[in-house]
Design goal:
Blueprint lengths: L9 E6 L2 E6 L2 H8 L4 H10 L3 H11 L3 H11 L4 H19 L19 H15 L4 H6 L2 H17 L17 H10 L7 H10 L2
């Protein structure tokens, strides 16, 4: 079952009178995935309290970039140990939120499809968010991974409900709407299991 959905989580980094909110948004996720070594490399460097890694996370996720830069400028004039410890905790918490999806409870069915790089998953979320859901790009960039996954799943659930003749999981030989199939449907521009006109009308209401 889907977990509890909330606005994109924010982690507060407080130091020396500064308060910087770090948002676990798709924008931050995409930027941090491009860090050398990806998320794995970032976790390693954060564990070492690398200032380069700490600064990268703070700049990518800060909701107020100007306040983040003031914080970083002030830390350059004081002992770094207290700041590094506080920043490490905040940055690790942020990464944990980014990499936690909104799905909880029963484990998903195993897929025979090849594993997809997480960068492609983020790109799919952006395309589905702006294309199928019709959200403005700014809203998609600021949403969390869990928000986008939940909204996209709800969209396709609604699409299935609007066509009672669509195959279901219980039907013999029914097609399962895996992320891979949804991506194929998007590339085709239609799903053969649906009435095409009904699908176009639905898409029109979301664009």
């Amino acid at each position: 079952m889907p977990g509890t959905i909330a606005p994109a989580p924010e982690v507060l980094l407080c130091h020396g009178g500064h308060v910087v909110a770090l948002r676990a948004s798709l924008r931050a996720a995409v930027a941090l995935e491009r860090y050398p070594g990806g998320f794995e490399g970032l976790f390693v460097r954060l564990g070492q309290e690398s200032l380069t890694a700490l600064y990268a996370v703070i700049r990518a996720a800060a909701t107020d970039r100007a306040e983040a830069e003031r914080l970083l400028a002030d830390t350059a004039r004081e002992p770094l140990a207290p700041f590094a410890s506080e920043a490490q905790a905040a940055c690790l918490a942020l990464l944990s939120v980014i990499l936690t999806t909104g799905q909880q409870g029963e484990a998903p069915k195993p897929s025979t499809a090849p594993a997809k790089p997480i960068s492609e998953h983020f790109a799919d979320l952006y395309r589905y968010g702006t294309g199928w859901l019709g959200w403005p790009p700014s809203e998609v960039w600021n949403a969390s991974i869990a928000e986008l996954e939940a909204a996209i799943t709800a969209h396709f659930d609604r699409l299935v409900m609007m066509n009672p003749t669509a195959p279901t999981d219980e039907a013999e030989g029914a097609d399962v709407y895996t992320p891979e199939r949804l991506q194929q449907i998007e590339a085709q521009g239609f799903d053969p299991a649906y009435d095409r006109e009904a699908l176009q009308r639905l898409k029109a209401r979301h664009t």
